[in-house]
Every structure is written in C-alpha cells, then in structure tokens.
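Chapter summary example.
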Amino acid sequence: MTTALNAATPAQLAAAVEANLYAFFRAMQTLPNGEIVEDERLSYHHAFPYGPMFKGIWCARLTPEEVDSAVEQALDWFKQRRAPLVAWWISSVSEPSDLAQRIQAHGFMTDYADDPGMAADLHTLNETPIPDGLTIRQAEDEAALEDWRAVLSAAFNFPDAVMQAWVDLTLAFGIANAPWRHHVGYWQGKPVATNFSFVGGGVVGLYCVATVPDARNRGFGAAITLQPLLDARAAGCHYAVLFASKLGAPLYQRVGFHDTGNRISRYVWRNNR
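The structure predicted for these 273 residues follows.
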C-alpha cells in the first residue's frame, strides 16, 4: 500500500480524489502492452481493455496557447494505437479553466460533467448493520467476477464490452495479484450489489458502486459501500475518496462522505475512421 494520507487538510482530500484516479491509471502500464506518458503539462495512458477508463488523458496543466497542439499530439498517439475511443478527465484544477470548451472543439463529447469529488474519514463512518439476508463477498474467482459484471450491467445498462473490460483487466493481472478488489453483495443467493476498490495516492478509492434496480432502497448500496472501507481501515488507510453521480451523492453522505469541492468531468472522443 502507498503511504497512507493522515491528518489531511481539506485541500489534500480534494487533491486525493484525483491522486487515487491517477494512481489507477498508472497501474495500467503493468498490463501486457500497457503504456503511459507522464509530463508536467499533460499525461495519458493506453491499455488493452475496451472502455474510457483504459484509454485516457488527464492532469492537464496547459496554457491556453498550448491546448490545440497538445490535443492533436495526444490524439495522434492514440490513433497510432488504433484506440476506438479516448476519455479526457478534467478536474476543478485542470488548466486552462475553459479546457472543456476547448477540447470539445476537437470532437470530445460530454460523458458526464461536474460530478462531486467526495472524501470520508474512515474512523468516523456511519457503520450501519448489514441488512438481513445480504452477504458480501470479495470476488476471488471467475464466477464471482461474472456476478460482479452482471450486476454492473443490470444497474447501469452499459454495453457488455465495457463491463467485460473490467473483468478482462483483472484476469490479465490474475485475480489474486490485481491491485484492486471487487466485492459482490448477494441477497437470497442472487448477486444484487457491487463495488470496486483501489488503494493509491494515499487513500482508498471506490468505483463501480451499483445495485440492481429491483433491489434498491433496501440498504444494500450503503452496505456494499461500507465493506471495502472497513477492510481498508483495517489495512491502515485513514481516508476514502470517490466521485459520485449527483443522484448517488446522498447515499455516500449517509455513509460519511462529504463534498471536497473538487469536480470531475469526463469527455469522450471516438475514432470514427
């Protein structure tokens, strides 16, 4: 585990939302044919799975005059690798301040915008009991990963290729060796809830928190959110971060997360050639 962030200031927690995401991107370079370019002005990465998490541009610190050439240079890099799509991640501290408008002129389309970056102190969580009949397990084999994928697909109605990419990613590392953990919640023997947790940037980050539509409003979302946080706390983490949809933010607030003021947006470019 990276050195755990401790006694963090509000500014450090806001920065940790990005730091955890970027640490996840850096992990991509250890995959077969994974690549990363890091520069003080702009960074990007490319890995084999299909989906916007695995082919991205991030950490922009550009002057207005640099944007156009930087965009074209980055897109050329991805075109050489025949990337079908590329995601550009923008935060509240990305530069220039009108970066979103500038990259849209190059064909990037809004995927989601201004999702709140949130953080929680793992020692002050609202630890509600697990609902009766719900069992939460870490996915430790391919069958459990398939359950994880199925819940995510049902919850978000994303293309199967996007959901399968997360499974393929973990299998490429080897489930036991992957630097992240999947959890699946089962109710009456059926998979109903999921999450994905990754320790990096001094904190644990939560991704892919989901509950299937017919199992919502029963406390399953809060339970599946809490489990990896408790595990991370036991392993020495002090803080958790995530970026939430506006609809999901109230659930995380009930668990103990607060808004850091950082905002995460994602814009996607598709290679139509």
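To summarize the output: The helical segments are 10-27, 67-80, 99-104, 142-156, 160-173, 220-234, 249-255.
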